[in-house]
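Hey,
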Amino acid sequence: MAATVLSFEKPVVELLERVRELEGALGNGEAPTPEIAALKCETVRVARELFATLSPMQKVQLSRHANRPYTLDYIARLFTDWAELKGDRRFADDASIVAGLARFRGRSVAVIGHQKGRGTKDNVKRNFGMPHPEGYRKATRVLELAERFRLPVLTFIDTPGAYPGIGAEERGQSEAIGAAIAAMARARIPIVASVIGEGGSGGALALGVANKVFVLEFGCYAVISPEGCATILWKDAARAEEAALQLKLTSEDLARLGVVDAVVDEPPGGAHQDYDAAAVLLGAAIAKALEELDRLSPEALVAHRYERFRAIGAHA
């Protein structure tokens, strides 16, 4: 995978590369030197200071980072016995959504998530993470399978939005998204959703009607992309930075407004700098959420989900 470095993250990336270089020079079983420990502390300090001042649009750039871990990267690190299920039983398989059964810490679960590609060929296959209707119908099929066998559902959100092409509209894009939202709303099982990158519009919400919704520290979640918003409001996509500020799409804004239940920290420099550490942090949040939801009856899970979404946007 080719390294992509955004201009504002260069100081952190340089420190991280130095740490890896020093660790790579250690012999087998050799303990880290004081120099490495000091450099790691410096990396954490610089990352916190630098990333604390990022603009909303810079955080959007991080959420879209080409090296950021995608759903299959988390599946490889958080789950065992992964068995992917394909097809919507109507038209085709959509590779921009992956779904299947797996074990999470020894427990059987269903997993559904958006999947972007690595490189041009894979991105074309995955349609840049923009699902067609058959992708959402596949997600609904796996969700209903999970409910039949009383399995918790874990979703991973990372899409600029559902594909808006003519073929997708002809095959019922809005109906497929609506059906996925309705199926999640009425499911009598625990559902935990995690925004691991960018969450755009109904294409993201179709996997986001959950009892617990998390967003990674540099993830974003909004009704439209900043570029799309700027184009509609001001007929000028160059004003995307202004739109990003107004959309309140960063993890801090989402938590403050109650759109998400919690923000999951990322490793220094972002999830794309350490896939394993990012998976550990997200896995811990998911495990805790499942433990809490296990105390609720099937009827209470549906009611909990209903009340959670009814409360968004409410003001006294």
